[in-house]
Amino acid sequence: MAAKAPSKQIFTWEGVDKKGIRIKGENESMSEALLKSELRRQGINPIRVRKKPKPLFGTGKKIAGKDIALFARQLSTMMNSGVPLVQALDIIGQGHEKPAMQTMVFDIKAQVEGGNNLADALAKHPDHFDELFVNLVRAGEQSGALEAILDKIATYKEKTEAIKAKIKKALMYPAAVVVVAIVVTTILLVFVVPQFQQLFQGFGASLPAFTLFVVHLSNLMQKWWYVVFIGIGLAGWLFVRAYKKSDKFHRFIDRYTLRIPIFGALISKSAIARFARTLATMFAAGVPLVEALESVAGATGNLTYADATMKMREDTSSGTQLRQSMRQFSNIFPNMVLQMVSIGEEAGSLDQMLDKVADFYEEEVDVMVDGLSSLLEPMIMVVLGVLVGGLVVAMYLPIFSMGNVVG
After folding, report:
1. Membrane spanning segments where (predicted)?
2. What is the domain-level CATH number for residue 123?
């Protein structure tokens, strides 16, 4: 049996550089000795190196999309101000609050100092820098316009993260209400209904059908509540797993979500906004259209749009104009988008037209999200009222019946 390879650990260190300035930082390494050797190779005389203690509650481990957007903006701003790349990375790493982000930035800095270009250094962290990000940086380095490309990347990441945040905001409220409804209903069925059930046993009369249904449901929850919740959890896990693993199921769900009233339009508009913003950014960075479309497909966030984009890539690679290829997908791309792309191609300003399309649909998403809360609130209140009110009515129906008999 092969021995398990040692894993990298995070070390904090202090040292003195060639100018005699005391500096400190964090790096990943296999061992303390290897890190000291690496620091000396970079011209740093290590004074103290030690393992970084793990956070008590795991705080700061996860790097979010907004952290990457901020990293792109900070790097863009500093390089546009004339700060050298390595120094800019050092400033960003030292100033970030999240230890995980600090570690990653210092690792990127070490890679660049070791002779790698920035794109290759970013590519070593694929969980946080996708192929699109890396390709744009590579295009900027090859063209000698890295500062300008970083500015476009920063704008792109900020816009896409804003879109994601708005979609999450739109979905969070109904999801939270559903959870509250499930909790309230469970409490009523497990703790409140049994109290009424004891009262009903003394009536000596048959119960209304609706009340009997609720009583039987309460008995089921009392005996098998753990089975019910395990079943719900298992169903959710299977759904997520199938969505991630099965392309056929993934396509079916993505296609169906576009048909859901209200939410389907929101998802469609956000996908069009990401399509336009990503393609505009890559085209403006000098990436060829065919190559750009491949990256755009993965950025749309919906397989229906991703499949359409890949078909456009095939068409354009054989000489077909983008506007002609897009016309076959008029069911998912509105006429306004087709017209703007057509004007952009004819005028030689496709990136500018696509930017305008992205701005328009991002504004549409903003308006829809703002209006969604006010639209969903009365609908959710009705659902909660029917659910909770129905349980209460079911419990009081026998009492009303007894009152009528006595009367």
Report:
1. 171-192, 199-218, 224-243, 378-399
2. 1.20.81.30
